[in-house]
Amino acid sequence: MKLRSDQSGIRGLPMPLWLQGGAEALQAVLISAVAALVPIAAVWLTGGFGSLQPADAIRLGGQAWLLVHGVPLYLSEAAPASDGGAAPSAPTVLSLIPLGFALLPFLLSWRSGRRLARASYAETLWQGLLGAAALYALAGFATAFVCSTNAVSANVALAASVPLIPVGFGLIVGARREAGSWSRLIGVDAVDWIARTGQYSRWAGSYLWAVVRAGFVAAVAAFGLASALLALDLAIRWANVVTVYEALGAGGVGGGALTVAQLGYVPNLAVWSLGWSSGAGVILGAGSKASALSTAVGPLPPIPVLAALPTSSASVAAAAVVLPVLAGVLGGWWFQRAGEDHFDEWISIKVPARWFSASVSALVLGALVGAVAGAFAAVAAFLSGGSAGIGRYSAVGPNPLSMLVWVGIEVAIGTIVGYALAPWLERGQLARTNAESVNA
């Protein structure tokens, strides 16, 4: 990227990489800010916020921008004082991040990372990334400072640092995507470094890397099946959702804004659906928990999508718990196809009895893949839950530790099954391929 007036060949001043990084970050900040302000402006223009002043509506948009980037908001309400006045009560925290909207700053940063990698060498890329991170931190700090009020406030230190997590991740992933490899990105040849290690180290590394990828495949499959379960449940109970919409009477613009807000939480609901189906459960406020095995839920806020909360039954529970197991079957099958089962090869050499070596390798693989998939599910549970900042809804979402245990165990069982069935499935596919080639 050059500071020049045209492409006629006249030399221009090269833009410093740190300045280009700041310019890229500024674009991401402005686009994400507009996306946060548009629905709020639509509701405000139609009188949905009553007598809210324009400056207050803009502050509300800034607070929404901070929440989208993962910054917790502190809500305070006036409580009656002993002298009859109003005294500030202890603030509650709003930390329930709409993961669907959080994808926007990530994707914008991903684009910026690609452009910065295209404009720099491996040894100078850090300058552009540092400039982008610095401007984004400054934007977060300024937004928290300007948009904080007595009722809703944000910690300026968290506002300057927390947005750098999704933004920094997007910058690095985008730069890696443009560079094509980590060696080109950071200037270190990983292949040459691995080639200098011993054979056993390379085998162990290949095995563990294949385990991580199999766990990732199983986790993605589990989330995909949970999302399909969520869509099916919404289709079955759509009448309940419509009833809540009608009871709210929010009008066209208000209903549209409410729908947009719920769409932002669709990834959260997908993770909650996995928590429900696995048996880990979903906490819906103090004393309320829903899962496929048992449901004990108190009064819920009038949010339409919550009207689709399924009730537990024996047949539904059995079908739902099978979903993470099926995801584990896919992970075990993928691992077998990867051809990196060096632990099984090693233990087969040490112990000639095949029944013993095959059983041990399957159990070890199931435990490792289950642990990786459970760890992914626990991270997703941590990101999808939080505090809704309203009364007893200070804890909402799946418990990360429960997700780790339940999803890990179920995926481990499925991995063992998939690992055992994979040779038979591959043999059948190979036989069909040979038959088709003979017929051809």
TrEMBL record:
Q: Which residues cross the membrane?
A: 25-45, 87-108, 129-146, 152-175, 206-232, 314-335, 355-383, 403-422
Domain of life from the UniProt record: Bacteria
UniProt entry tagged with the keyword Transmembrane: yes
In the UniProt record, the signal sequence range is: none
State whether keyword Transmembrane applies: yes
Q: Keywords for this entry?
A: Membrane, Transmembrane, Transmembrane helix
The name of this protein is Membrane protein
Which organism is this entry from? Sinomonas humi
Q: What is the lineage of its organism?
A: Bacteria, Bacillati, Actinomycetota, Actinomycetes, Micrococcales
